[in-house]
Predict the 3D structure of the following.
Amino acid sequence: MNLASRLSPLSARRSGPLQGRVRLPGDKSISQRALILGAMAVGETRITGMLEGADALSTANAMRALGALVERTGEQAWRIMGVGVGGFAQPRAPLDFGNSGTGSRLTMGAVAGCPIEATFDGDASLRTRPMRRIVDPLELFGARTISQVDGGRLPLTLRGALDPIPIVYEVPVPSAQVKSAVLLAGLAAPGTTTVIENEATRDHTEKLLKHFGAHIRSEEFGKHGRRITLTGQAELEGAPVVVPADPSSAAFPLVAALIVPGSEIILDGVMTNPLRAGLLTTLQEMGAGIEMLETRNEGGEDVADLRVRGSTLKGVDVPAERAPTMIDEYPILAVAAAFAEGVTRMRGLKELRVKESDRLEGTAAMLRNNGVTIEIDGDDLIVHGKGSVPGGGLVATHMDHRIAMAALVLGTASAEPVTVDDAAFIATSFPGFADMMRKLGADLS
Ligand code: S3P
């Protein structure tokens, strides 16, 4: 989906206390995995609570182009009739994943075990992102890269393996996308495919594979890692998927409520999977008033209603080993840190440089342009919090939804308004963000 046709600037002004109760859109990671696994399964998959953001819609289109039947049956309700493992048809045109790293990379894994050729493409942001980390292990299965740009960028053409070979693969960077691509390719290979990760990353692919009937086992490995073994040439069976509310989207109203004095909001049914909950841990260490009400299980994931109150925050040291559990939350954590008293040091943020934009630089520039003192020291971001933020800056979002939302949250509590040059990309993960923030009392226009 092309969101870059024209710029749509948006500003946030200092807002009154935020109040109300809202439900966030469905989790982006789970929505995309449900679409892909539904397309790889035999029979019907019904998804409820699906994220209807541009990223998930690009993936839905790609699954159609690969031969699955994918239809919307109601609000956030989707039905898929899959083609079975190894059953994708050769697409007639390049698959356009828009802004979506997850959609493109997981689909590469799924295609690697099919005897077809497919071209993967995306928008200007996705075209800058590294793909060798995905195609390197896929080539070990027997897939071939027919063409690529600049040593592993999109557009890239992949030919799947006729007879995929199972592999043992130690993921060189902590990445759920690489892990997932290997597991999806492993579905088509005979025998056992093993993935070793030295730092555990989000485990939605493993959970959903089990839910769709695959034989998969995960055990602890080393101090922070996991070893995952999957039995290949599996038959996946379509299954119902209930998508919980996305904690990475919840992070934006959550931090807004913390920094706007006097706020009290409730966020319904937010997923609290420990491999996604690093931000909650960090904010609690900073003194945030967050209560978990009604903890329960929805569709195989732990969820809770979160009550969030305006809070006085203090700076903290965020250890590097926590990064995989909050990798998408650093821009908004940096906003919370700017309103805290004291220094917050976020360690080990190398991976932020290869997200939808260079998020380490983008986050630093967002704060710097709004009067916050920051430093980048190697892979660490250091924010000098002073309890308040001058604001008044224009923020370049670089086609990055999370930089845009973080900057707008910054503006809800800074002295002067904060403007983003382009809010369009928010629609990749959080359609309705501005309306929901306004409903809670934020001044966005
Ligand atoms: C995701 C994994 C993470 C994350 C991304 C979603 C996923 O990327 O940043 O937004 O759904 O697997 P990496 O695998 O590159 O760390």
User: Anything to note?
Assistant: The chain is about 30% helix and 30% strand. The chain has two domains: 6-26+245-444, 28-235. Residues 28-235 form a domain with the UDP-n-acetylglucosamine1-carboxyvinyl-transferase; Chain fold (CATH 3.65.10.10).
